[in-house]
Design a protein that fits this description.
4% strand, mainly alpha, 354 residues, three-stranded antiparallel beta sheet
């Protein structure tokens, strides 16, 4: 009996969930839009990686190296290098998982720093040292385990968007963003309680803090919703056709926006608001003022207090440099040695803590 062979079903849009510039040489509907996408995002990732490397060099040769700055921009540079290589040359989902791993590590470092700062303000140093930092290390190794699971548990390109590892990473991002938000609220309240620091300077610190919070919130929410849609929508198991062909308006708006907001926008904001700074200046004017100065150093990175007498407006202060926010009794009892007649708001040397 003769049997007629049934030809296999061919996807009319032979694209990958994540492709490369090689698609420019293929022939299918929407090729030009997909090719433009890959070229554009490869260039943006490359330019962002270069900016991160330059920022790391500036931090390293600066007066003071903010350690968490250096870690964050190193991770961002690695993320953008992997994304550039992935979008431009290699059609492998595993590379996207590696870039996503670096991204969630950036969230983890930022959250760990500001959360630790909030715990210092609340005077929970024991919890910070014995619970908080060890927990951050455990979370990092958890991300390593998820990445290893993603690299081992391979899936066909047509179904890879439904893999649970995407949702695990996006949920982790979302949770870290909420912890960052809580830390930001606590730090903002603490800064509002300090009245001896230049108002404009504190406003700039709040703007930096909330710029990071807002962009992290937006990025985590968009990525979380996007992964939820991919997990629920493709009933036929085809990731390529969820938003239509590559030149469809839905495909361009959704996929292009998701890549920009989730992977590049947080790095751009960090590049804009995080800068190298000089060393923290500690001002000792006696036991009481030293305590206030210590609290201000934690909150705003520098402490400036004026002492005015009816006879003159000069300020007598002993100034030393310290990278720690704890001071010994010998430091507090040091004799007054220097005098400054300028008001605090006119000082050119203002030290930052982030």
């Amino acid at each position: 009996m003769n049997t007629t062979a049934v030809p296999p079903t061919v996807n009319p849009y032979p694209i990958r969930y994540h492709g490369g510039i090689a698609v420019c040489n293929e022939h299918f509907e929407g090729r030009d839009a997909l090719c433009a996408k890959m070229i554009l995002f490869s260039f943006l990732a490359f330019a962002t990686a270069v900016a991160c490397v330059v920022k790391c060099v500036r931090l390293y040769i600066g007066v003071t190296v903010e350690k968490y700055h250096l870690i964050v921009f190193s991770l961002a540079a690695l993320e953008c290098i992997v994304l550039c290589f992935h979008w431009a040359f290699v059609e492998r989902t595993e590379l996207h998982f590696v870039a996503l791993f670096f991204l969630v590590d950036e969230f983890l470092v930022i959250c760990a720093f500001y959360g630790g700062l909030a715990l210092k303000v609340l005077n929970h140093r024991g919890f910070l040292e014995w619970v908080y930092y060890p927990l951050a290390i455990v979370i990092f190794f958890y991300f390593v385990g998820v990445l290893a699971y993603a690299l081992i548990d391979l899936a066909p390109f047509a179904q890879e968007c439904t893999r649970p590892q995407w949702l695990i990473f996006s949920v982790s991002q979302f949770v870290l963003a909420q912890l960052f938000l809580i830390a930001g609220v606590l730090l903002t309240g603490a800064m509002n309680a300090v009245s001896n620091i230049d108002v404009k300077y504190l406003a700039s610190k709040k703007a930096t803090l909330w710029s990071l919070i807002i962009v992290f919130e937006i990025s985590s929410v968009v990525n979380f919703i996007y992964d939820i849609v991919l997990q629920l929508y493709p009933e036929d198991g085809e990731c390529d056709t969820i938003f239509g062909p590559p030149d469809a308006a839905a495909f361009v708006i959704v996929t292009w926006s998701q890549l920009l907001i989730c992977y590049l926008l947080p790095v751009w904001v960090m590049l804009y608001v995080l800068h190298p700074s000089t060393r923290a200046t500690v001002i000792h004017m006696g036991p009481m003022v030293s305590v206030l100065c210590q609290r201000a150093n934690v909150l705003a990175g520098y402490c400036i207090y004026s002492i005015a007498s009816p006879q003159n407006r000069s300020m007598h202060m002993d100034i030393s440099t310290s990278e720690d926010d704890s001071y010994s009794s010998d430091q507090i009892q040091e004799p007054l040695a220097r005098a400054y007649s300028r008001p605090p708001s006119s000082w050119s040397e203002r030290d930052q803590y982030y």
